[in-house]
Amino acid sequence: MGAGHAHPLYRHAGGPLHRLPAEVKVVALVVFVLAVVAAPRQMLWPYAMFAAVLVAVWAVGRIPLRWILPRMLIEAPFVVLAVLLPFSEGGERITVAGLQLSVAGLWAAWGIVIKGTLGVAASLTLAASTTAAELPLALSRLGVPAMMTSVLVLMIRYVDLLAAELARMRMARVSRGDSPRALHQAGAIAKGVGALFLRSYERGERVYVAMLSRGFDGRMPELAGVAAVPRATTTQWTLALLPAAAGVAVAGSAWVLR
């Protein structure tokens, strides 16, 4: 896995965000998301401010809305869950379009949807501007335990291999007359998933033995090319944390004015 390895969410734009060291972007993301989560859900204006901060970051990073919006559909299952809350929660109820809805459920649904949406949007911003190869080094520089970094490196390396093997298994079933959409093929699909799990487990054991035979001591070596990226300067830290600081200021102001 070289320095040029990129995941499907990476956007080759070459903007200012792409040139920032990954560790500052990771810290900025965590602080911004914590600020969003901490903001009171009963107020609307803080979330408009959070969204404005993200739009400003996208403009600076050359990440267009038409790229961000389709990829935010990943949060659709959470939206479906949130829609059910106004019907299932108790307490005071109001009538909306002939439906009796819980006030507490509406606020809970609003909190899940808006905070989840902003969190996904912020995460996509990091993913769009950071290659997969940069993340392990960033986590290592931030003091994340070596074992967690090792797991992340191996996951990034082998998730594509597992996806390709799953595609080959599906193609093999189809070539033998299987119809993946047919309900009676559910058993065959389940057996295929089980076989893939066993193959993955066996592959993991072989890889681990091979790593031990090459002197693996629990720490991943720094990747060539990526390791040559210099550490973030004070200026880069300051610039990268400005959106996060703005998020903290918005959340703090919301609680003061609540």
From TrEMBL:
Keyword Cell membrane attributed: yes
GO CC annotations, alphabetized: ATP-binding cassette (ABC) transporter complex
Transmembrane segments: 20-38, 44-61, 68-87, 107-127, 139-159, 237-257
Compartments, record wording: Cell membrane
GO terms (BP aspect): cobalt ion transport
Stored InterPro entries: ABC/ECF_trnsptr_transmembrane, ECF_CbiQ, ECF_transporter_component
Keyword annotations: Cell membrane, Membrane, Transmembrane, Transmembrane helix
Protein topology in the membrane: Multi-pass membrane protein
Name of the protein in its database record: Cobalt ECF transporter T component CbiQ
Originating organism: Mycolicibacterium murale
